[in-house]
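Run log // design_07
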């Protein structure tokens, strides 16, 4: 009789402990993919071409270093980064804004506001929009080191090397797409060609003398964004098109799709496949979708 209150106390404590345990299990469960990756060393190197709709947002991770190339047309990138970066990693070593159009830089504004950003690489295009103004303001407020892109330059981030292929110094184009930063990402013996939105006029002038495994097709697969001789010369093993479903521009163009099919080049598209993940040990590579 006297012990009844004690039993109920014990039950209460038991209940609280139980709830705490369940909470811990749930939290651990949610973080399992990240822990597993860290423990197994699997997070060596990977690239995610995010499904952000009509635009580009590409996260490259190697160990604890990240390079973010473009941020897409909205804030979706923030949820993706929240999911894919370790909870205690709030620093992105390098952000690249390929060119100032909204489908590439809008998402970068929120990233600059919320993350510590080491360096920002862009090309100083004359482009007068509210979004570009807000982007430049966010870069200034973040106090990140600003790097100006120029062909021939290269940036090392951990074991990653970003080689800048375009634009050449002081290049000006009527079409701002052609002022896109074109870069080769190099991880050991694995290379990705990132074309931004640089169209045929630019691609005719590119000289790519490294073996390319993966190509991020230019300008969301538009026809004027695909230059067949370049594609044939570099002969990649995988093509990726970052594009929004049912976009108003008709991207990707049928002729681009036809060319890839004719070449027998495997293609992944963010509108149909979702986020595309490419992993490599620096020699072979694997891809999956999520
Ligand atoms: Zn674009």
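design_07 sequence
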């Amino acid at each position: 009789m006297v012990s009844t209150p004690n039993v109920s106390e014990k039950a209460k404590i038991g209940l609280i402990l139980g709830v705490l345990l369940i909470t811990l299990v749930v939290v651990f469960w949610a973080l399992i993919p990240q822990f597993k990756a860290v423990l197994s060393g699997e997070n060596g190197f990977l690239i995610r071409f995010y499904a952000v709709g009509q635009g580009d947002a590409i996260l490259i991770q190697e160990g604890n270093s990240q390079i973010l190339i473009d941020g897409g047309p909205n804030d979706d990138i923030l949820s993706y980064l929240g999911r894919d970066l370790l909870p205690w990693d709030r620093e992105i070593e390098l952000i690249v804004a390929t060119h100032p159009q909204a489908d590439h830089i809008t998402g970068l504004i929120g990233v600059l506001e919320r993350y510590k950003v080491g360096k920002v690489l862009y090309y100083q295009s004359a482009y007068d929009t509210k979004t570009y103004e807000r982007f430049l303001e966010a870069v200034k407020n973040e106090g990140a080191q600003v790097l100006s892109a120029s062909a021939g330059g290269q940036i090392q981030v951990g074991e990653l090397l970003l080689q800048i292929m375009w634009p050449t110094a002081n290049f000006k184009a009527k079409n701002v797409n052609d002022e896109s930063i074109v870069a080769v990402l190099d991880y050991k013996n694995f290379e990705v060609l990132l074309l931004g939105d640089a169209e045929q006029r630019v691609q005719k002038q590119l000289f790519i003398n490294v073996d390319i495994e993966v190509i991020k097709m230019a300008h969301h697969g538009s026809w004027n964004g695909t230059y067949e001789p370049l594609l044939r010369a570099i002969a990649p093993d995988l093509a990726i098109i970052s594009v929004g479903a049912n976009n108003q521009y008709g991207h990707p163009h049928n002729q681009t799709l036809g060319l890839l099919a004719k070449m027998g080049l495997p293609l992944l598209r963010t509108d149909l496949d979702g986020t595309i993940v490419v992993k490599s040990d620096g020699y072979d590579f694997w891809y999956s979708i999520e």
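The longest helix spans residues 4-40.
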